[in-house]
Amino acid sequence: MKALVFTAPGTVELLDVPEPDPAPGETVVQVRVAGICGSELHGARRPGFRKPPLIMGHEFAGTGAGGEAVVVNPILSCGRCAECRRGLRHVCREREIIGVHRAGGFAERVAVPTSALRPVPPGLPWEAAALIEPAANAVHAWNRAGGALGAGGAQGARVAVIGCGAIGLLCAATALSGGAGRVEVTDLSPARLAAAQRLGADAAGPDLSGEYDVVMDAVGSAATRAASVAHQRPGGVAVWLGLAEEEAGFDANALVRSEKRVLGSFAYRDGEFAHATALIRDWDLAWAESYPLAAAAEIFTGLMNGGLHPVKALLRP
Ligand SMILES: [Zn+2]
Ligand SMILES: [Zn+2]
User: Contact 39/300 with Cβ under 8 angstroms?
Assistant: First the structure.
């Protein structure tokens, strides 16, 4: 079968690879759609958790053994530790991710633990099914903000989202669906700001001004992390999803003097994955573009080197 293989730092290739060999308890998924994630572009440039050779792809949907439509929850956890028993299996210390620690969805077929399969609602387009996993990240971030703000959560909140890549757009959509009073977004790209406006957000331009109850950072650079604190009202909350840099560089004394808060947000709980599955049907997803698997190496390399600019690229094996 064909697969896009991460073969060396900065290199992906479309190769003929052996068919997946499912272990007991695994199912072979016929991949119908797989999204390319920003984390994979970073990971291919500077290998960290992802070690070549690897078939990446953690955002994917397809058909299961009986031909039924399934979406994969790629978070695998031990199921035994204190975090798993608390329902926090997404921060299990033994966590592994399909497409990061083992072969993922950038292939015609992939074997995954049957326990990772979730049903796709009837009639949901494949393109939307591929965006359930990134949308679940946004649902989790929104719930993190709501939990921090206390009674009433983030209902009616003034929300800012920094960065209108797929995660930022999905954060804006989740906040709007979740009862935010107003959602303002920033990005350097007018096309990305326009996509956010089609979802119902207000475009603030390249930078934030003013103060917000919730600031969601979907970039993760030292500058955006600093902005998420600077533009947070006293006692507000910043939720960080982006992982562009390891540095923060924010005004830590503002956390003391104005009781500002910063929360990290990674992945999602199982219920949030299900919630994302229900929400995604209502959103304008025209900013995601589909490409055949045959073009995968060219598309991935173009995104990695910054020469190609769909907000989100989906592969259709
Ligand atoms: Zn992702
Ligand atoms: Zn665990």
Answer: no
Q: What is the pLDDT of residues 188-203, one digit of tens each?
A: 999 999 999 999 999 9
Q: Is the dihedral of CA 91, 96, 99, 101 positive or negative?
A: positive
pLDDT at 137 over 90: yes
Write down the pTM of the prediction. 0.97
Q: What is the pLDDT of residue 225?
A: 97
User: Is the pLDDT at 111 greater than 90, yes or no?
Assistant: yes
- Taking the centre of ligand 1 as the mean of its atom positions, its distance from the CA of residue 40, in whole angstroms, is 8
Ligand showing the shortest atom-to-Cα distance for residue 36 = 1
Helix (H, G, I), strand (E, B) or coil at 201: coil
Region for residue 163 given its phi and psi (left: phi exceeds 0; alpha: psi -120 to 50; beta: otherwise): left
- Give 111 Cα–ligand 2 centroid separation in angstroms: 22
Ion ligand 2 — residues with CB < 5 Å: 77-78, 81, 84, 92
Distance 261 CA to ligand 2 centre (A): 27
Distance from Cα 38 to the centre of ligand 1, integer Å: 7
Distance CA 298, CA 309 (A): 13
Helix/strand number for the chain, H first, E second:
10, 17
Q: Which residue has the tokens 């924010």?
A: 250
- The answer, yes or no, to whether residue 150 has pLDDT greater than 90, is no
